[in-house]
Amino acid sequence: xxxxxxxxxxxxxxxxxxxxxxxxxxxxVKTRIIRFGYGLNDESVQGRAARYLAExxxxxxxxxxxxxxxxxxxxxxxxxxxxxxxxxxQEMMVGSTAPLATMVxxxxxxxxxxxxxxxxxxxxxxxxxxxxxxxxMLDAKGLVGxxxxxxxxxxxxxxxxxxxxxxxxxGIKLRVMQNQIALGVFGALGANxxxxxxxxxxxxxxxxxxxxxxxxxxxxxxxxxxxxxxxLSLTHHVYTPWVVLASKKWWDTLSPDEQKLIRExxxxxxxxxxxxxxxxxxxxxxxxxxxxxxxxxxxxEELKRLRAKAQPVVDKYTQELGPDLVKQLQxxxxxxxxx
Length: 339
Ligand code: TK8
Hints:
The protein is of the alpha/beta class and 339 residues long. It has twelve helices and eleven strands. The N and C termini lie far apart (62 Å).
């Protein structure tokens, strides 16, 4: 009896030893260097989240998946990095959805103004079936869309005047992100819209090549636009996200274990980034108030008028994007609104 108990214990110990060895073996993770590029500087929300992602990935992989982060568009603008990922000469990046729309037109949906009322709605739609569906569409174009990070609600800065009334946008030479919808929307609002990569924006503002731009306050602060832009108008006209991307060419060479670890780290980075973004946006507002910028709110009435001005192009692009797609998005938003 005692003997058979002993045998059982020995047998159990052997089984568990085997499983442990088996698991260690099954973790097929090689030592790899992953170049991760982004457009904002190291002190930005993007910079902090990129470093967090690199650290998490290091921890999860026992130091094998080594992510090197490159900010300030040092690996290129969003547009250039996208192309490098497709070609396989760069592994990963984070960038705006707007330039993705030139590859997968559906991403242009995020440039339709006044869609989301708050971050809660954006989170639910982006992390839900709608956001996922768009990320999946990138596969066929040579990109793997991992998670959405928050860029945020965008406000307008310029060197001409406060945008307090809808008419104040008239004739402002405004840099916009590079796709048809952004161009069309700001054109309809009366601005002289100029598409340009973000990496060229500070110089363009400083040299007065353009009068203004629109971005969330955290970017206006971290990119020091307050040094060259006297007016900040809180239009909150659109919420735009960022997407963490991998090169599909490269991704397909990874083992399932490696892919799983990267996905896991990316999801963790999303939670970190959004929390940081929201805290940073409040801090940035306070800093901008002290910077000497003239900051104005825009009344609900004038926002309604801006919205009405944009409506014809919103209708036009809804047709182009596909009315079903836009309806799906609206339905997802309504679900959140109805709680
Ligand atoms: C940074 C950009 C930026 C975006 C823009 O590379 O282009 O205005 O808001 O965050 O992706």
